[in-house]
Amino acid sequence: QQPVQSPQAVILREGEDAVINCSSSKALYSVHWYRQKHGEAPVFLMILLKGGEQKGHEKISASFNEKKQQSSLYLTASQLSYSGTYFCGNYSGAGSYQLTFGKGTKLSVIP
Amino acid sequence: GAVVSQHPSRVICKSGTSVKIECRSLDFQATTMFWYRQFPKQSLMLMATSNEGSKATYEQGVEKDKFLINHASLTLSTLTVTSAHPEDSSFYICSARGRTSYNSPLHFGNGTRLTVT
Question: Which of A22, A47, A84, A106 has the fewest CB atoms found within 10 Å of its own CB?
Fold first, then answer.
C-alpha cells in the first residue's frame, strides 16, 4: 500500500520552514525518509520506528504518530541544498521487508 | 560507509538487444537487494527483491523473463533487461540493505539511465 504524501510540491525562500506529511491507510511499522536530487539516487535521511518518535538530521526533523498512521518531516530555516524530492517509505505488513515509497514531494528552495 | 556502486550510469542500446546492470555493495554485505524503476517526475516503483543465493521475488506486473535478476553473492546483484524495447527506457536504481529489519535503511546506487532506440 503506497503511502500518501502531501503537498505534492512546495516552493520556499531560503530561511523559511516547511512540513511534508506522509500517511498510510495501513499500520506503519516504520517510516523512512529519503531525499532525491534530480538525476541522482535517493539519499537516506532518517528512520522512525517507534510511535511518537522524533528524529533529527541537521535542521530536518521528523515525527511519527503510530495511531494516526502518519509521519511528518519538518524542514526549518531551509537552505538551497534542501531542494529535491522527498520520499517517505514504509513497511506495510508484518514480515514484509519491502519498502513502498510515496509519490514524493518536490521541494524548491529559492534565494 | 554503506556505499552501493551501480554500473553503468548511462546506456543506450538498440531495440532487441539485452543490457546488464550491476549493483555492488562496496563496504558491507547486502542480504537483500532491491531493484526500482523510476519514470520522470514519478516515484520509485519496486520491481523485484533479491536475496543472495535464491530466486528473486518480482512485483505484480513485472515480467521476470524480461527482467532477469541474479544475486550471485552478498555484494553483487545484476539486472538484465532482455530484448529491450523503447518502452523499457527508464531510470533503474538498485538498493541494498545489510540487515533484515524495519530500522535498517536502504542504500541506493546512483542509478542507470537506460535509453532504448
Answer: A106
